[in-house]
Amino acid sequence: MAYRTDNFDDEIVRRLTRGSIGLVPTDTIYGISSRALDKSAADRIRQVKGRSHGKSFIVLISDIKMLDLLSISASQASAVKKYWPGPLSAIFRAPSAPDWLRAADGTLAIRLPDYGGLRQLIDKVGPIISTSANVAGQPPALTAAEAESVFDDQLEFYVNVGPLDNPPSTLAAIKDGRLKVLRQGSVNLSKEDMI
Asked: 34: burial class by Cβ within 10 Å (0-12, 13-18, 19+)?
């Protein structure tokens, strides 16, 4: 039976630490999450979403120093520091990051969310995967109830903070210390920061 709560309590920390996957609110929408460094949990997320192994995840961190846990040089983060925390997902060169996280081209999308409670959770459990709460090809769930109607007990916990329908994060690739927008979202980048 899935655990249900309205906050990032100690049980959520325990479940993530033990390898559970569940519904987590972010600064944009709900995501299906697990500890990023837990390959088995990441594989289960792919399975419940029907997601191919060729499609990488976004990883959420609570501090730029966490890039080291993902084998990413923090020096690459200079391009995004003024936008973090916030809804900017940046694609880093990450050839040494775990293969179950990175894309085939050796990159990894990272976001430092503008949600204090979520960052506190990540401080306790380490970087987490976040992927939209939907089966591949379907629209994302905007409420915990919508997610539960799709995933039921396939997810081991649900953190319900009410409806979330914020604009998506801006997605940008880091190239030579500057940013190339791949998907415009809620963050507008300064011209001087863009390629």
From this structure: buried
**What is the rounded CA–CA span in Å between residue 160 and residue 30?**
9
> Which CATH class, in words, describes the domain spanning 3-193?
alpha beta
Q: List, for residues 70-123, the tens digit of each pLDDT value.
A: 999 999 999 999 999 999 999 999 999 999 999 999 999 999 999 999 999 999
- For the chain, the structural domain boundaries read 3-193
Helices (H), the chain: 10-17, 39-49, 116-125, 144-151
Question: CA-to-CA distance for 67 and 53, rounded, in angstroms?
Answer: 22
Cα dihedral 73, 79, 42, 100 sign? negative
Mean pLDDT of the chain: 95
Tokens linked to 53: 């192994």
